[in-house]
Amino acid sequence: MPHFAPTRVTALRGIRPSAAAAWLGMGVLSVALLLSGTAAAAPGDTASAALADAEGNDVGTVELTETHHGTLVVAKLKDLPEGAHAFHVHTTGLCEPPFTSAGGHYNPASAKHGFGAEAGPHAGDMPNLYIPAAGELTIEVFNANVAVDDSLLDADGAAVVIHAGADDYETDPTGNAGDRIACGVLKGPN
């Protein structure tokens, strides 16, 4: 039986020993990542939330659908006050009024808040909603920073929150958006 020295990498078909070691290291890292237990998002994966206001009234739904390039967010909203409202994914899947139980904005990369921030945005930052006088709105938003995966849907979950005011896209960490007026726990995959 041949003897192989554990610390020596021999050339493989013209590949230098250092390059072969690098390829071997990448292979070991890839296997370790696959076995780490974090499920990656796949196109078609979904999560959804039923939103309620502080009195428990139904104010709509939000559905997240993973695509090849990020997540499509579809919100179907009703009975909300007219005007501009911040719209975010939050870190904790708990919606107890006044909805501070939903935690801060979803931010796995530890970015600064807002589209206007040089080191931003949070993954959970999304454009403001503009609710018309009738109080109903259906909107599609694309978020390249959120994935429908185990990071989002971890043990404490995640939530979608609508705020009383508009997000200024700069003030860290909240966008100076005011009180939280609606919240829904994300559940998935659907």
3D structure, described in words:
This protein is mostly beta strands. It folds into 2 domains: 36 residues; 140 residues, Sandwich (Immunoglobulin-like), CATH 2.60.40. The protein is built from 1 helix and 8 strands; from the N terminus they run H-E-E-E-E-E-E-E-E. It has an 8-stranded antiparallel beta sheet, with no helix packed on it. Strand 1 and strand 2 form a beta hairpin. The radius of gyration is 22 Å and the shape is globular.
Q: Helix fraction?
A: 10-25%
Any idea what the CATH architecture of the largest domain is?
A: Sandwich
Low-confidence stretches: 1-38
Distance between the termini: 53 Å
Shape: globular
What keyword list fits this structure?
disordered N terminus, 190 residues, 8 strands, Immunoglobulin-like, single chain, mainly beta, 8-stranded antiparallel β-sheet
In brief:
By secondary structure, this protein is mostly beta strands.
Topology:
Elements: H1 17-35, E1 46-53, E2 58-66, E3 71-77, E4 83-90, E5 125-131, E6 137-143, E7 159-163, E8 180-185
Antiparallel strand pairs: 1-2, 1-8, 2-3, 3-6, 4-5, 4-7, 7-8
